[in-house]
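To the wet lab folks,

You asked to see what we're planning to order before we commit. Fair enough. Below is the target structure as tokens, and below that is the sequence we designed to fit it. If anything looks off to you, flag it before the synthesis order goes out.
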């Protein structure tokens, strides 16, 4: 479990224990780690002979992680180091200085554990949350915080301070909005930039570069300011398809940024970002995996314990790195759907779930599909030269934490789990199994027939795209027992899965052909989470062989930058590998049950809209 966020407006929060999240710690979702020591794992024994290995770095919500992979995509060793986070209401902030220190510690520890020397690392890639970094002309942090604390120069991805700015931007109906589901989320960068300009004018005037966190990491490592098509297209309204006729991945080079819509920035009051050929937000872009500058600088190499000149690939957002790390992780018998489809066409039948603090739903296609309420279509944002559709749920792992930690039975449950040397999740799953047998229920999911959860506790990202949506728990009683907490946990887990079912159905109705799910992230280590998703969605769910696919995706960027592979997709086919496959229940009663609960799930939001309208009318 993660440390609970408090409402302190000044105390930096360190996650003292593991969060079951791809966006935080990489370890098993049922284990914990100390906030003082580094978490380290080793998958295989290192050989004494020299090897070519690739290093992936991922910065999540609660930790910086590093993983070393061999030429077969096998994890040799990984390490995690916690990072600071400050939270005050809707404002969530971090420090780029703190993050770089954590990366340095994690990289050194991962290489040491894998018994890898610096000259064996042949390529390096970075992935990170889509958080916004502010630095001045010297590269020093510029505060984005009401506190004025200069350390706090990152607006974290989940920060919702800019809801009002997002509404104003969306009201203008700019043509660029059709490429992000019709509306900008307050989690994207333009609303946050507008908020800073309107509320922190001194900081606004000081900033020399505004960067997505993963772009800042590659810039800090190489000195090359080239931005990724992943970050700029997905979070900044950059129109990547402006390059469709100019370049292809195999001829990759720095491309002059011709995809900015200057009219959009002028209309929303950020015309000053157009100045200097968009110098503050990106004058050049490149495909993910494109080699940056002259590789790792001598300064960065010393800080990371590596060798100067190592190729560094253009970055990815962490969820997209997860997509790269698992999208080809299908059993060999499933690698080609029936018929004579190409490799790329086969990819288009798959959805990747990256399940952590939040969940991202990634789908590629050969043609652009405009889907209301779902981000995209984004060109070359994950697999170069392919279109990406990106759904999402803003709180999944974070919501499960919230439900468990805020229940009166939580402290006693945590003590029991600790005494048994198992996680809280494992204990809850055991309680549910016992309850099912005691009540003679036909299947475990049926325990929640009287409890229904709408999981929009941090708004709805997809497919409704309503940041004002609220969470609902229907069916509460005065029961404060551990058994009742277990039922709320199960109902919440099911609500999250119904949300994914809603996204899958919505995307398929708009032209996608999803029939297989690949999943990664901390939450997939919970077997109940995965089985409920398979039963509720009605699709098999494939887990990757490697336990750290986001780190593998980042390492693939380094392998492509080192010219080990001619394309991202070739690298994915070579380094991805399948693991366990979870099939949906064949019991028709299970399907009938979830169909009924899904109807209630959909009705809960409709009722919320009706209640919202009634109260708005009452207050006019």
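Sequence we intend to order:
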């Amino acid at each position: 479990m993660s440390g609970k966020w408090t409402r302190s407006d000044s105390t930096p929060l360190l996650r003292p224990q593991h969060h079951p999240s791809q966006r935080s710690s990489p370890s098993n979702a049922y284990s914990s780690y100390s906030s003082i020591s580094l978490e380290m794992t080793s998958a295989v024994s290192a050989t004494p002979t020299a090897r070519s290995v690739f290093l992936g770095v991922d910065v999540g919500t609660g930790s910086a992680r590093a993983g070393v992979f061999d030429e077969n995509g096998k994890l040799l060793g990984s390490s995690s180091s916690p990072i600071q986070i400050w939270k005050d209401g809707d404002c969530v902030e971090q420090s780029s200085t703190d993050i770089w220190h954590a990366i340095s510690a994690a990289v050194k520890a991962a290489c040491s554990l894998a018994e890898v020397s610096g000259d064996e690392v042949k390529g390096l890639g970075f992935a990170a949350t889509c958080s916004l970094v502010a630095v001045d002309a010297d590269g020093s942090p510029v505060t984005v915080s009401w506190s004025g604390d200069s350390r706090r120069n990152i607006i974290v991805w989940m920060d919702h301070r800019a809801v009002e700015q997002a509404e104003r931007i969306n009201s203008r109906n700019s043509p660029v909005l059709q490429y992000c589901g019709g509306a900008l989320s307050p989690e994207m960068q333009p609303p946050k930039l507008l908020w800073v300009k309107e509320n922190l004018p001194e900081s606004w005037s000081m900033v020399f570069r505004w960067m997505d966190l993963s772009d800042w990491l590659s810039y800090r490592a190489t000195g090359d300011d080239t931005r990724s098509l992943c970050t700029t297209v997905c979070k900044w309204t950059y129109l990547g398809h402006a390059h469709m006729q100019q370049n292809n991945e195999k001829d990759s080079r720095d491309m002059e940024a011709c995809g900015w819509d200057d009219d959009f920035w002028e209309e929303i009051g950020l015309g000053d970002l157009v100045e200097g050929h968009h110098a503050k937000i990106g004058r050049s872009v490149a495909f993910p995996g494109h080699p940056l500058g002259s590789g790792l600088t001598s300064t960065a190499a010393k800080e990371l314990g590596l060798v100067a000149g190592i190729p560094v690939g253009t970055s990815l957002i962490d969820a997209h790195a997860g997509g790269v790390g698992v999208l080809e992780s299908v059993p060999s018998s499933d690698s080609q759907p029936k018929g004579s489809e190409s490799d790329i066409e086969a990819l288009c039948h798959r959805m990747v779930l990256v399940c952590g603090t939040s969940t991202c739903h990634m789908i590629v296609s050969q043609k652009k599909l405009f889907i209301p309420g779902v981000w995209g279509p984004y060109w070359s944002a994950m697999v170069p030269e392919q279109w990406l559709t990106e759904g999402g749920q803003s709180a999944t792992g974070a919501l499960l934490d919230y439900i468990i930690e805020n229940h009166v039975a939580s402290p006693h449950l945590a003590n029991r789990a600790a005494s048994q040397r198992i996680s809280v999740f494992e204990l809850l799953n055991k309680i549910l199994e016992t309850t099912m047998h005691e009540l003679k229920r036909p299947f475990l999911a049926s325990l929640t027939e009287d409890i229904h959860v709408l999981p929009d506790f941090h708004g709805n990202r997809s497919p409704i795209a309503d940041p004002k949506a609220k969470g609902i728990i229907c069916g509460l009683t005065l029961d404060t027992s551990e058994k009742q907490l277990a039922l709320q946990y199960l109902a919440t887990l099911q609500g999250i899965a119904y949300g994914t079912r809603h996204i899958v159905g919505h995307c398929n109705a708009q032209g996608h052909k999803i029939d297989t799910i690949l999943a990664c992230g901390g939450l997939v280590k919970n077997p109940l989470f995965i089985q409920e998703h398979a039963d509720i969605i009605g699709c098999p769910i494939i887990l990757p062989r490697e336990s750290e696919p986001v780190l593998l995706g980042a390492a693939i960027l380094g392998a492509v930058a080192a010219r080990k592979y001619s394309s991202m997709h070739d690298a994915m086919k070579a380094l991805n590998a399948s693991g366990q496959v979870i099939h949906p229940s064949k019991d028709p009663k299970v399907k009938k049950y979830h169909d009924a609960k899904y109807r209630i799930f959909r009705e809960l939001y409709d009722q919320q809209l009706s209640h919202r309208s009634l109260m708005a009318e009452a207050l006019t």
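Structural context that might help your review: Confidence is low (pLDDT under 50) at residues 1-41, 43-47. The longest strand covers residues 75-82.

Thanks,
Computational group
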